[in-house]
Design goal:
heterotrimer, A mainly alpha (about 575), B mainly alpha (about 220), C alpha+beta (about 280), B: 5 helices, C: alpha+beta, 5-stranded mixed beta sheet, binds heme-A, binds dinuclear copper ion, binds copper (II) ion
Chain lengths: ~575, ~220, ~280
């Protein structure tokens, strides 16, 4: 006998698609918004690359250029990757994967999206005011970001938009944290949670704790801009007492460093799961991966000083931050080794999502390794504020997180829209994107290694960088190719949505809970409450093969044949 | 899927069957705790800014500019006492509801709201002095934007005051629901969650009082 | 070949095998894709540390690539996956020790040398002060230029005989130069890529760095911190002169400065009393 649906489906159009409290609808709303902003951020990136390829064209002036990279960075981080990777996948997968019928606070969830939407309106509006949008860099360092350096409403609107989107993030994250603590289905113990949920949960914790610090900094900055205070203004520009510009950097990076792990933890979690699913092999050392992610989460709170090595910080403090920064590479290496072990001796299915995950592992290797260079004060004396830093963070978050986002889209598209995406177009998308993205960001690293500083309207002003125009030109060409390479994706996205092959409930043959319900799932997700009996990664188990004739078994499935003599099966022993 | 679970009646998403690993807390309570952690970090951001600015003042100039009024520590100590009392009545209200003494629950909740409202009034008086000669920090010349001391004072106590205001509003909503008989069945979950928020506001005030008023 | 060449070659062949037309390493100065020409006594420490780390990282990266390629090509669909949760004592032990080894070698090396280099060179201000002939210069950064102030013959800052220049920084070769940096408007960062040092200019406080030139010539001063519209143009020149040339310039500049000195012009007196930080 089936359970009745717990909350009846909405019938009214507005409640169903617009002001919906259904986590699956909100997930899609976040995804759409995120992709549109990804396109906008990508367009701004092309403007940057165009300027560096043709510095003499004077298509834009230096002031517009400053706005361009500032808005590119902010939009990509807060309005593209955050909604797509965290807003979409978090909403979609957390309830489905832990066996819940919705988020713990569905109304708050809806509010979170619409608050985010408001911030999106603000950020678009900032482009339209006099003097243009924000131009103080995504880090928004004062005094440049106060009226001293960037007068006009653009900068204020952007800071306000960050504040508003921060509120949306906090609402969402309170929801994620609570949902995972409270709404796991019977039997879904911490040790049986998919790594995806672990990654998203840890991300939500970091968001809950550190976004408020940025919010505090942003509020003080707004006071400085419009209410005559001088928290961050000093030097000759200050009229009353002396504020402290470095104070803002503390507040910013206390948030900012966790933020970069916020953007990678969900990707790590998803990678840990999916590498296993598509290698048809258990995730290697599940517990180790969980602990590594927990360790990174904890450590991420205490390394932020490595962004401020050249501000003249106290040497002892600097050395402490240096050591902690280097230590954070241990859990990262552990994770990495576990992924490599997961795919080793598997039975790898090179589907589009898998390809994107392998690509993400590859570029994360590059990004993570280049992070180590920046971790000491002495190497940072040379590398700080060069394109080497820019290359480092593009490899980690613009390549690894972005490719993981694409992978997630291909993987969960059937669950979201009930149709499969085209594998052919998907593979085109993968190969073009991964090759060109590697070239673009390697190009950034190389010019950075040669000394080119960041945020330069015309980087060839200096004698030591004048000869880098060729390299930058070819990097730009690769970037344009990267943008062109998104055409297969856009085609795929729209054509699959209307005319893709209908997806069955479990097209990838995996055992996590979201694939036990139809694609797309009914409004209430589960007709009956699932009872979880094992972990998410039971692949290639000989007992399962013997009993069921397939290489996987769902998290809720009982193994039909038991051998009472040996006290249960190997599956149960493994998931115990 | 085993049949045993089909016996459960229709459930709201936050009313899953008991499972040992869930613990006893309701979703609302867990959510409130998470939110309070978040809020605590925002206060931490402000207090950190205050601490760094204050720690970095030039000893020759000093933190307190000439002519700025001192904070009324005695009066604020009284407000602090008031707030602590309102936390106590909050506890009493919850435990009254738990024991189904509705009358007492209403009384103590009303007292809590009253305490909070008095605190707010006290703050208004502290800021503006109700127009009395020689009272109120603003009339006495503690001007927002004039010095770090003044600005951070208004930011931090103002931000806290906003919390007290939200708390009073929140408790009032619960109070009205209680008067309407919504909790006659003895369900004290809502009250307890609101109480968490109230205790948090109280706790933060003790920190603010110590750091802003007592640090001279 | 110098060891750095090998590194450069590895860089280029590995990371640029995909864009072959670009993969050439032209000789210094200022044309290949390696560091700008090193004109300082201590810069090689940083170069070496970056290069050796690069070698380690390339090794790790190559292992990673081979591992992934083998896994994908050898263990494709036809291969039967191994049932292994990787949570035996043995496999945990292997994973842990591998990470520990990588950490101890790569990060340990970085940490050890970074601390050593900082204490022996980049933070060794006491040594710089101890040198008989050290030179002190005050720098004022503002949108979008650098002001330099030399104490002049009396060796006291902010007096009438100070030499003040704009975007023109002259130092004698083989002399420790200690600079203190201030900013009047927004953040800047005083960067000398050819000397491998940089330090932020922070409004409201004074920061410092020191370096010692080993080779005469003209090099760029660059602003590394975004400071507004013309950040990209905030360029200065540092000229490393022989001691004789420097002395000659110094005498000449002192005379010019004395002539140009205007006691009424408040804004020209931005200097400060030098104190050891
Ligand atoms: C997703 C984002 C992300 C991630 C994951 C990281 C990861 C790391 N980052 Fe990065 N970082 C950023 C995003 C990110 N960073 C951003 C956005 C900035 C600049 C912001 C700005 O200024 O605008 C920045 C800047 C930045 C700086 C400041 C530089 C400067 O401004 O001068 C530093 C300095 O220490 C640093 C260090 C590190 C380190 C040590 C890691 C470590 O976590 C890396 C750990 C990973 C590994 C160590 C690699 C894995 C291991 C292998 C590949 C080995 C495997 C091989 C075998 C087993 C054989 N980062
Ligand atoms: C996650 C964040 C992220 C992402 C994804 C990117 C992506 C890219 N970035 Fe960006 N970047 C930053 C974060 C990011 N960046 C940050 C934080 C800064 C620092 C800013 C600062 O200094 O203040 C920066 C700065 C920065 C610079 C340095 C500017 C300077 O210092 O002066 C450059 C230069 O090359 C650059 C280039 C690129 C390129 C070519 C891409 C490409 O990968 C972009 C490719 C993407 C597209 C072409 C879009 C494709 C569109 C779709 C897929 C949408 C489809 C839509 C539907 C289906 C509806 N970026
Ligand atoms: Cu000054 Cu950039
Ligand atoms: Cu960081």
């Amino acid at each position: 006998m089936d359970l009745q649906p717990i909350h009846p489906d909405p019938t009214n159009f507005w409640k169903k698609y617009v002001f919906s409290t259904d986590h699956k609808v909100i997930a899609r709303q976040f995804l759409w918004t995120g992709l549109l902003f990804l396109a906008l951020g990508g367009f701004l990136a092309m403007v940057i690359r165009y300027q560096w390829a043709f510095p003499d064209s004077r298509a834009i002036g230096p002031a517009e250029y400053a706005s361009t990279f500032t808005m590119h960075g902010l939009i990509m981080i807060f309005w593209a990757i955050t909604p797509a990777l965290i807003g979409c996948f978090g909403n979609l997968t957390i309830p489905l994967m832990i066996g819940a019928r919705d988020m713990a606070f569905p109304l708050l969830n809806m509010l979170s999206y619409w608050t985010f939407f408001l911030s999106a309106v603000l950020i678009i509006a900032s482009f339209m005011v006099e003097l243009g949008a924000a131009a103080a860099g995504w880090t928004t360092y004062p005094p440049l970001s106060t009226q001293v350096g960037t007068p006009g409403w653009g900068q204020s609107l952007v800071v306000l938009a960050i504040f508003v989107t921060g509120s949306a993030t906090i609402m969402g994250s309170v929801n994620y944290v609570t949902t995972v603590i409270r709404l796991r289905a019977p039997g879904m113990t911490w040790g049986r949670m998919p790594l995806t949920v672990w990654g998203l949960w840890l991300t939500a914790i970091l968001n809950v704790l550190f976004v408020p610090v940025l919010a505090a900094g942003g509020l003080l900055l707004l006071l400085d801009r419009h209410f005559g205070t001088e928290f961050f203004i000093a030097g000759a520009a200050a009229t009353t007492g002396a504020g402290d510009p470095i104070l803002f950097q503390h507040l910013f990076w206390i948030f900012g460093h966790p933020e970069v792990y916020i953007l990678i933890l969900p990707a790590w979690g998803i990678m840990g799961d999916l590498l296993s699913f598509f290698s048809r092999k258990p995730a290697y050392w599940y517990k180790g991966q969980v602990w590594a992610m927990v360790a990174v989460t904890v450590l991420s709170a205490i390394v932020y000083g490595h962004h401020m090595f050249t501000t003249g910080m106290n040497p002892l403090l600097g050395q402490t931050f240096m050591l902690l920064t280097l230590i954070i590479s241990v859990p990262a290496e552990l994770l990495f080794l576990n992924w490599l072990h997961t795919i080793w001796k598997g039975s790898i299915r090179l589907t589009t999502p898998m390809l994107f995950f392998l690509g993400a592992v590859f570029v994360f290797g590059l990004g993570g390794l280049t992070g180590i260079f920046l971790g000491t004060i002495s190497t940072d004396l040379y590398l700080h504020d060069t394109m080497f830093v820019v290359g480092h963070f593009h490899f980690t978050m613009a390549a690894a997180s972005l490719l993981a986002t694409f992978a997630g889209i291909y993987y969960w598209f059937p669950k979201m829209y009930g149709r499969m995406m085209s594998e052919t177009l998907g593979k085109w998308h993968f190969w073009i994107s991964t090759v060109t993205i590697t070239l673009v960001f390697t190009g950034q690293m190389v010019v950075g290694y040669a000394g080119q500083h960041r945020r330069l309207y015309d980087p060839y002003q200096y004698t030591f960088t004048a000869h880098l125009d060729d390299m930058n030109f070819w990097t730009s060409i690769a970037a344009f190719a990267m943008a062109a390479g998104q055409i297969p994706f856009v085609l795929n996205w729209f054509s699959s949505m209307v005319a893709g092959r209908k997806a069955e409930a479990n097209p990838w043959q995996v055992g996590t809970l979201e694939w036990t319900v139809p694609s797309p799932p009914p409004h209430h997700n589960f007709d009956v409450l699932p009872v979880v009996v094992r972990g998410p990664h039971e692949y290639a188990n000989p007992d399962v093969r013997a009993a069921l004739g397939r290489d996987w078994i769902g998290q809720t499935e009982d193994l039909p044949e038991r051998d009472p003599a040996s006290g249960g099966t190997a599956v149960e022993a493994a998931s115990a | 899927m085993s049949a045993e679970h089909a016996e459960h009646p229709a459930l709201m998403p936050n009313e899953w069957p008991e499972d040992p690993h869930f613990g006893r807390a309701t979703s609302a309570k867990v959510g409130m705790w998470v939110f309070l952690l978040s809020d605590a970090f925002m206060f931490a951001g402000f207090l950190l800014a205050y601490g760094i600015l204050r720690g970095g003042t030039d000893p020759e100039v000093g933190w307190i500019p000439a002519g700025e009024p001192a904070f009324g520590i005695g009066f604020t100590a009284f407000l602090t006492f008031l707030l602590i009392c309102s936390s106590v009545t909050m506890v009493l209200s919850i435990s009254a509801l738990q024991q189904n003494h509705l009358k007492y629950a209403k009384f103590f909740l009303g007292a809590t709201i009253f305490g909070g409202a008095c605190f707010l009034l006290g703050q208004v008086y502290e800021y503006w002095g109700f127009g009395l000669e020689g009272h109120g920090l603003v009339p006495l010349g503690l001007n927002f934007g004039a010095s770090h001391r003044a600005t951070s004072f208004y930011c931090i106590t103002g931000f806290h005051g906003m919390h007290v205001f939200s708390g009073v509003t929140y408790l009032t909503v619960i109070f009205i629901r209680m008067l309407k008989g919504k909790y006659d069945d003895g369900n004290w979950n809502h009250l307890e969650t609101a109480g968490l928020f109230w205790h948090f506001v109280d706790l933060v005030w003790i920190l603010v009082f110590t750091l802003v008023y007592l640090w001279i | 070949m110098r060891p750095s060449r090998y590194v450069k070659l590895l860089w280029l062949t590995l990371l640029f095998s995909l864009s072959a037309p670009l993969a050439w390493a032209a000789p210094q100065p200022e044309s290949g894709y390696s560091f700008p020409r090193d004109a300082s006594v201590h810069g090689h420490r940083i170069d070496w540390l970056i290069e050796i780390t690069m070698v380690f990282c390339i090794i790790l990266f190559v292992i990673m690539c081979i591992w992934m390629a083998l896994a994908v090509f050898k263990h494709g669909e036809d291969h039967e996956a191994e049932y292994d949760h990787g949570d035996t004592k043995h496999s945990m032990y292997v994973a842990f020790s591998l990470s520990a080894i990588i950490f101890l070698i790569v990060d340990g090396n970085l940490f050890y040398w970074a601390v050593k280099d900082l204490n022996e060179a980049f933070w060794a201000f006491d040594d710089a002060y101890a040198a008989e002939n050290h030179l002190k210069v005050e720098i004022n950064a503002h949108q979008w230029a650098w002001d330099f102030r030399y104490a002049g013959p009396d060796d006291v800052f902010n007096t009438a005989d100070d030499i003040v220049t704009l975007n023109d920084f002259r130092v004698p070769v083989d002399t420790p130069v200690i600079v203190q940096i201030a900013s009047t408007d927004v953040l800047h960062s005083f960067a000398l890529p050819n000397f491998r040092v940089k330090m932020d200019a922070v409004p409201g406080s004074i920061t410092q760095l020191w370096f010692q030139a080993k080779r005469t010539g003209d090099y760029d001063i660059s602003c590394a911190q975004h400071c507004g519209t013309n950040h990209y143009k905030m360029k200065g020149q540092i000229s490393v002169l022989t001691q004789e040339d420097y002395d000659a310039w110094f005498r000449h500049a002192t005379r010019v400065s004395e002539l140009a000195y205007d006691p009424e012009d408040e804004s020209a007196h931005w200097g400060w009393t030098w104190e050891k930080l």
